[in-house]
Amino acid sequence: MELKPRHIHIVIKFKSRAASATIDRLAQVIGVEPQYVEKPGRGRYAHDNMLSYLTHAKYADKHQYGPVEVATVRGPDYVGIDAQRRGTWLKGRAHVKKKRVAEDFEDMRERVLQGEITRDQIMLTDDLFDIYSRHTREIDDALSAYGQRRAYRAAAKLRAGEFSTHVVFVHGEAGVGKTRFASEFVATAINAANVHGERWQVYRAATGNPLDDWSGEEVILLDDLRASAMDANDWLLLLDPYNASPAKARYKNKGEVAPRLIVITATIEPVEFFYYARQKGNVDEALDQFIRRLASVVKVFRADDINRYRVQHIGKIEPYEWRQPYRGVSSMYVGARRELTYGPDCAVEHDAEGAVDELLSGLAVRSSDVPLALVEGGAA
């Protein structure tokens, strides 16, 4: 138990109200500021509670003083009072604990509603989880309410043009480190925002029904999600940088989705990924409509036994032809052909830190209402 700096508690009982002094006068006599002199609470047990606090008898989590450590200046000796009242005071610990738990719950609930406490923090912190276990429904409701408000406010800002969604597609062979890189970029982006007073959080989507548990988080990480996990129209709505749209969930419709950042990881290139996504659902949109929603594409690969990261920024370019790969047992065959007008208009190779910095620079341009640090050479 961490002890507080040395201090003293004094209990003064006057014969009558007429014989008492003002708080300012008492403070002057004692030699302290007036805010350190308090009137007792109302009720017949107010004085008794003050006496019990001299030894912290009702407060098991505070340092326990012996009754002989209390000096009696006038009136009945405190040792005798303690001997008479200690049994009752100890029984009062349960009431004090119950009252404190209630106060802690109200404080925790308010902090959840302000976004100061997350579900992860609750599950990983013993004190917070203890309160949560006693008030599960109320805390869950507060988390849900904060998530809804966060989502609605983000959608309003998106419609007002205060930011646009930054979509990054990370691809590479299995085991090359795509998830590690994506997680590093997400963590850096969140830290950069939080330094400036924001409270960004990340939502890691499940492989099936990816938006079921989304609760307004500013960052969505779609790690190794299959293209068929959502209908083509849902992909188009989710990745639209400038419009907030309702996103389907398995059991209920979510509110408008307007994340700051979406990061997708896959083992195939984005054109092939969205070629397969386009096949699910009744959507007659050109493949270009998927690619143009991407801000940047990162290819993760190994060269000379070290990981390299090729960052490409997407824009409108000269028309080019894409051929669908078909991977046979021993060779690659060409399937469907598509003409596209959106693709990488520039590419730069980096190490992991350099790639994260460049992507963060692009995010800062898209989220210009948040003072993220711009990195020289980055692009939107």
From TrEMBL:
The positions making up the signal sequence are: none
Oxidoreductase found in the keyword field: no
Please list the GO terms describing molecular function.
DNA binding; DNA topoisomerase activity; RNA binding; RNA helicase activity
What keywords were assigned to this record? ATP-binding, Helicase, Hydrolase, Nucleotide-binding
* One Gene Ontology biological process: DNA replication
Q: Where does the Helicase superfamily 3 single-stranded DNA/RNA virus domain lie? A: 168-266
Q: Does the keyword Phosphoprotein apply?
A: no
**Domain of life per record:** Bacteria
Gene Ontology CC annotation, any one = extrachromosomal circular DNA
Q: What Gene3D superfamilies does its record include?
A: 3.40.1310.30
Q: Which InterPro entries match?
A: Helicase_SF3_ssDNA/RNA_vir, P-loop_NTPase
Q: What is this protein called?
A: RNA helicase
